[in-house]
Specification:
Two copies of one chain form a homodimer. In chain A, helix 4 runs parallel beside helix 5, helix 5 crosses helix 6 and helix 11 packs across helix 12. In chain A, 57% of the residues are buried. Chain A has a domain of 317 residues: Alpha-Beta Barrel (TIM Barrel). Chain A has 13 helices and 13 strands. Chain A is α/β, with parallel strands linked by helices. In chain A, the strands form three sheets. In chain A, strands 1-2-3-4-9-10-11-13 form an eight-stranded parallel β-barrel, surrounded by eight helices. In chain A, strands 5-6 form a two-stranded antiparallel ribbon. A two-stranded antiparallel ribbon of chain A has the order 7-8. Chain A is globular. Chains A, B: Keywords: Flavoprotein, FMN, Monooxygenase, Oxidoreductase. Chains A, B: This is LLM class flavin-dependent oxidoreductase.
């Protein structure tokens, strides 16, 4: 990976699309589209609006199971159903021209050859706009769909993720520049000297290669990470070109930003070679009161059963419904699922002295991400402060509600960011790498240097 | 699976899109698009043309590896590279409205939960237009990309395919009719009584379910099969709703048609519940001489190295380049890869007394499928004869060249089929099942009968 070209620093914006919106009760908004999570046209509209506003990318999360099938809250949990992200992004590729398309795929329950191939296909057919959000599965209901009784432990999942990434990157480097000739007269399609098997043999995977999809105009898909634990940070520094992070405060965001950027040097990477985009869920009003009113209209629609279900992943098996809703969070044991996220939320509750109800109301909006409620100027002030003070290179915008929530941000906050010279009015390039200011990757095969390893 | 509704019998047409066309030298046609196999717009044009002509479906084959990486013919083999089929079909779903979208996915190197989910997602976002061509991997270069040294043997691949299909069908039946409520006022999304885990535990797979994608307007994707061996025929009769078959003669096609339709009764299925669509590669001219001239222009562009490479999969390890090109095919040992296909081609050479060169020229066009070269009336005569005499319910059209090859069929043969009352002028329905005349499947869960098993 090489340094990126220096351009006037602009912030990057992602549109993180989820169902009827990120607020857990968004689907109950009378103004929202019915069955939003399963309505393709709804996603087309949102992606085209984000493109018209010159966002860098749309982003889709994933889950390979319905959580809590036997729970009383299931019928209240809109996120139980969704389109498989790469299927949806491929369809969106055909009806957009410029915006990046970043999808989540797990390294725990996929074959690296299949993932390398699918993202390379999306990258190629979209003209170089694909990104892969590399995750390890942390949802305890996933393994049952893949022949396993339980998740591999945290450390093993990350070892697997590292090796998986090595294989995928290696497969993406199967084709040197200029390998495709397509010389009709001579009857020569490829230069076989420029096509390389991988012959990977590691702890978890043996993959011969080469990949049967050649590179796109951006070289290969952008690699994105979302983990916040120590393993997650190290994986990001080693493998990622963008990170979608989750923070509740400037201090947390700045600590994360500084730490991950610092870790890059261990892998011979520059600070500009990885972009950090915290998630933020903005509820925008022309006045503070209007914004608060919009937020309240969503909060008021949260059923306590859903609120408690939201807390279940962090509760380590403790049944919180046995405790008073308006009392404090009890002591909780650590879990194997998403250590870092659990810690963030429990810290939040302790720090703010929140009751169980207040904690679920606190996270219901942005699910542990950063919730902003205010005027365009107030929201732009916050984003600008993070951006100018080493806490963010941009933001993954999580519309609390997919229709008015995204529209409000685009119509009210984006113009304010432009007035401040922080965000583009036009795309400068055609690929996701162009938008993010990332250099076209150097093939590891073509590199004179050996593959970088930790300096420690 | 229940009987289909009786409508005036019309033939079904698929557009089997492959790279620059099905003829092995199509990519060398000076009139063709450059890099056709990797040019998304090329596929959009072809799919939209097929839709405008009211074809039932577009179909994409697959291969999970580059064959013959170390062979001197690789650089001549256009099919070495391709988009992953479901990625491409998902993109095509967004720029078409009615045409069915059938893609190949192997049961050998995928997880059934992932395949069930991806096809259900495509089915849902396309409004009920998806089909899954269920195959077992028979390419000896595939296993190396998935941690294996060799393919599982033929019988094991088919046992795995049967169980894989059971799991996928079971997951597609996770949701009963009316399970989705989306009652905003009451805050009730699903009826939990109508959502069912699968709890499958078999020889190869353990899958809990339920699937996190609800059914589409056609219930679930159409299941397609392409195998021609005895195992393949039985799998088709047990699992498929459409079969893409490969034949060289009416006798072969009629034998296959009769045999597979007969086998349906063992599973309690009607003859109309499975549609048989032989592959056919038509080269159409306004005169016979024009058609022959078009075909010759493609045949003349086949390099002998490519021709020999085409025969390699059937040669059972024998190096045919050691034999005279214009001499007979030597004795060949049986291979594990695609038994039935090998037998078909060797029979063909023996029957017609073909030299090695003549055999590769014979199969280069349609690769063992049925090659027609003639006028619109001659081609329509052949198709009509098969259709009216229990050898075909329709055809999977394999354009020898993607631009003029598909155009010629649509502009010259389709009107002739319409004049004969054999092919629709307008779609009668919106889903792939509607086009094929297949009934919406009855959920196995909802069925009063137990899952049918062979009567033998």
């Amino acid at each position: 990976m090489s340094d990126h070209k220096e351009t006037p620093r602009q912030l990057s914006l992602g549109a993180f699309l989820m169902g009827a919106g990120h607020h857990i009760a968004a689907w109950r908004d009378p103004a929202g589209a019915p069955q939003a999570a399963l309505n393709f046209r709804n996603f087309v509209r949102a992606a085209q609006k984000a493109e018209a506003a010159r966002f860098d990318l749309v982003f889709l999360a994933d889950s390979a199971s319905i959580r809590e099938v036997e729970s009383p809250s299931l019928e209240l949990e809109e996120r139980a159903v969704r389109f498989e992200p790469l299927t949806l992004l491929s369809a969106l590729a055909a009806v957009t021209e410029r915006i990046g398309l970043v999808g989540t795929a797990s390294t725990t329950y996929n074959e690296p050859f299949n993932i390398a191939r699918r993202f390379a296909s999306l990258d190629r057919l979209s003209g170089g706009r694909a990104g892969w959000n590399l995750v390890t599965s942390s949802n305890p209901s996933d393994p049952g769909n893949f022949g396993q009784d339980a998740l591999p432990d945290h450390a093993e999942r990350y070892r697997r993720a590292h090796e998986f990434h090595e294989v995928v990157r290696g497969l993406w480097d199967s084709w040197d520049e200029g390998a495709l000739l397509y010389d009709k007269a001579a009857g020569v399609l490829f230069d076989p000297q420029k096509l390389h098997p991988l012959n990977h043999a590691g702890e978890f995977y043996r993959v011969r290669g080469p990949l049967n999809v050649p590179p796109s105009p951006q070289g290969h898909p952008v690699v994105v990470q979302a983990g916040a634990s120590d393993d997650g940070r190290e994986t990001a520094a080693r493998t990622a070109e963008a990170v979608f992070s989750a923070h509740q405060s400037f201090e947390e965001a700045a600590e994360f930003y500084g730490d991950v950027k610092e870790r890059l040097s261990r892998y011979g990477r520059s600070r500009g070679s990885l972009k950090i985009l915290p998630g933020v869920s903005p509820v925008v009003g022309r006045t503070e009161e209007e914004a608060r009113q919009k937020f309240r209209s969503l909060q008021d629609r949260i059923d306590p059963v859903v609120g408690l279900a939201l807390l279940r992943p962090i509760a380590g098996g403790v049944d919180l419904s046995a405790y008073p809703l308006d009392g404090p969070l009890p002591e909780l044991p650590p879990t194997n699922a998403g250590k870092s996220r659990q810690k963030l939320l429990i810290d939040l509750a302790r720090r703010k002295g929140l009751s169980i109800r207040e904690l679920y109301l606190e996270i219901a909006g942005a699910r542990g991400h950063w919730q902003l409620v205010g005027t365009p100027a107030q929201i732009a002030d916050e984003l600008e402060y993070f951006f100018r003070n080493e806490a963010a290179d941009g933001f993954n915008i999580m519309p609390p509600q997919l229709d008015w929530g995204l529209d409000d941000f685009i119509e009210l906050v984006v113009p304010e960011l432009r007035r401040r010279g922080l965000f583009r009015s036009e795309y400068a390039g055609r690929t996701l790498r162009d938008h993010l200011g990332l250099a076209r990757p150097v093939s590891r095969r073509a590199s004179v240097r050996p593959v970088p390893t930790p300096a420690e």
